[in-house]
Every structure is written in C-alpha cells, then in structure tokens.
Amino acid sequence: MINKMELLRKRWVLLDLPVLEETDGVNSVITHVSNVSLGIIQVAKTILFAGGEVTILDFRHLTTTDDFVEAMGKIPQSEVIGLSNNYYDTFGALGVAIKTIRATSDSVIVVGGSHVGELDIKEEELGVDIIVRKEFEVFFQQPESRKGPHPLELWPNFKERIPVLEVTRGCFFSCEFCHHPSFEQRKLKDIETDLAFIANYVERRELVFATYLFGGARQLEEKVFELLYDQNFNFMAQGRPDLLAAHGWEYLQNAQNAGLCNLSLGLESVNPRTLLDFNKTKKPEKWINDTLTVLEMAKELGIKTKLNIILFNTDSREDLKYLDEFLCDYEHLFSGVTASPLMSFPGTPMHGKKEKCDSLSYGASRYFSERSIYPVRNEHGITFDEALEFCNVLMKRYDYYANLWDGINAKE
Fold first, then answer.
1. pLDDT at 371
2. 398 — phi, psi (to 5°)?
3. Cα–Cα distance, 241 to 6 (Å, whole number)
C-alpha cells in the first residue's frame, strides 16, 4: 500500500504527454509546444508544499516517435514519474511512456488528467501504480489553501506559453467510444484564482480550455464569461453542437464578447447509422443540422471553427465519399478539420464489447498504445489503414493548426 503523503515528499518528474501521429508512414510528435498546463503547475505546487522535489520535462525539440521513446529512456532519475493525460489523443503516448518507464526504471508511475482520470479503468489494467481521480491536491488530501507564487519557473519559457485551464471534468453523455462515468464542475473561486494568476504571470493573451467549456454547465459557463470580459484574452474551447444550437445566438455572442475565437465541434460523423450505433445521439439528422446551425452563427460572429471527425469501423467507402462531399459543400463555414480512425480505449464501454472489437497490433500504428484496439469492421467497412489514409487527406486539405491564432487580435 502506497502512502500518499510519503510519496509527495519524494523526487518527482512531471511530463505533459505529447500527441504521437503518423502521416504518410512517418511517425511524428505534436508536443503542444505553446501550451502550459495549469494542472501540472498545481501538481508541482502541491508536491513542493509537502516537501518534495519536482522537475518538469520539456519535449519541444522532439520530432518523431523514436525521439520520444529515446527521451523517455533518458529522463532524470526520480522516485516518482507523473504523466498527464488531458487529451484522448495523447493516450498513445501514455502507452509508450508507461512501457518505456517500466523497461528502464523502478519509479512509481502516477497518471492523471481529465481523460484517464475519469475512465473506468484500474491501475493494473493500465500498468501504473496510481491513477489520480479528480484533482491532484484533492486526491492526495492536501490543504486547499496555498501561499506563495506558482512554481512556474520550473517550466521553461513559461511566460511565452498558452495556458490550459479546466472548467469541468467528465461529461453528461455516454458515447460508447468516450464515455466518462461522471460530470463535475470546478469551483468558481478556483477558476477565478487561476485566471487572475494567468493574467499576472503569462505574457501571451491566448487561453485554451482543456475539456468541454460548452458541455452542459451553462450557469458556470456564463459566470466564466463574466470573469473573462475584462481579462483581454482570446480563448479556444470545445463544445457539443446540440447544446450550442439550443443556447442560441445570444449565448454564442456572449462567449465571443468574452474572447471566444476558436471553437471545436464534435460532429464525429455525418452517417446517421454510425451516430446511432455508437450512442453519439438519438437524433442524428438533428445533430447534423445543429452542427450547421452553430457553424453559421460562428461564421457570422467571426469565430474560427474546427470539426472533429471519427471514421468508424462500420463506415463503408461510400460513406467516406459522402463525408467528403459534405465537407466540400460546407467548407465555407469552417476553418479546419481534425480526423482519426475510431479507437476503443481501456475504460470505455466499447472496449469491453468483444463482439465489436479486435486487437490492433502495435506495429500497424506505432503511435497507439498496445492496449488500444480497433473495432472489427463488417464486410463493407473500411480497414484501419484505409481510415488512417483518409484522415491524413482531410487534415492536409483542412489544416486547422497551421494558422490557428492568425488574424485574431486581443479585445480592445
């Protein structure tokens, strides 16, 4: 049994995991180079408060998956290694990191973040010692009050980074490929404290919300808008099309007045069958129409939008053709697309449905964890390689990240 308080007093290395990606057969690393995670800063602060030591790793120089594996094998000797998994697309890096650490050291592995921390998965299944549920300082039962500056000097060039902030964790909904068992709102006073800290210590005037800002907690969201009105920030957030369409024009305009300039929408698919099959929505036609409604409102308000697309194992080549035509028809409304093949992660409902899933060999796509699986396709469905190739085509055509903040000026 690990004593949490004793663990906090040890030497820690903290790492905000990158995204590992494969394009045209080349494995590359997307490192979130501009971001600085307030979650990791709070972890560092909690450890230092308890009497421990902290090193935060900077992997901005990495370019390939092999570089990442090599760097993981050379991290400083420490008694504890903390890995942050705030984005679903860093799950592959999490698998690589855990495997590499286990092969090269006997460090205690602690994993946290809004993605893995809310999945219904046990430590032994993931191959780690501790999965942090909820926020780090709460999980480790540390006092809420903190005095002194944030330990941002541990993070190289922190003043030039873009802060990443959480408002909520989890989700009201139950998509089979991404189900979170709970939904939790942060305290408004904690969000206010974080925003005041960002305004005082970070030079860049951009802000990223790590999880759904527009995810169902409307009263909290509107209070966050009020906090942001006078902070002179531009921010990026993600949301559900049905909720944003229901909230309407005035709500989205309030968000824009607060600084919303980049909006990510989880469209996922334009195939009604797959939207139903994987429990994305009970009303697929309305879901698609709601997405178009939000895109039109955002376009009129000058908000950049990105569509998230998932290619499902039941999609056929005809379905891909229809998706391609849909995106071409409405490309005047959005700024970019991110796309990926459906992966079923441990801790999700789909992962346990053997009739829907089959193993994906690590060699087929090195940037995904061995524990990730690609669902079995039907006789008309696309293969993983076909899905990956089509995703690469879409993201080259609708490159969202190339000019993410261009043409956006801070509010007067």
1. 38
2. -115, 65
3. 45
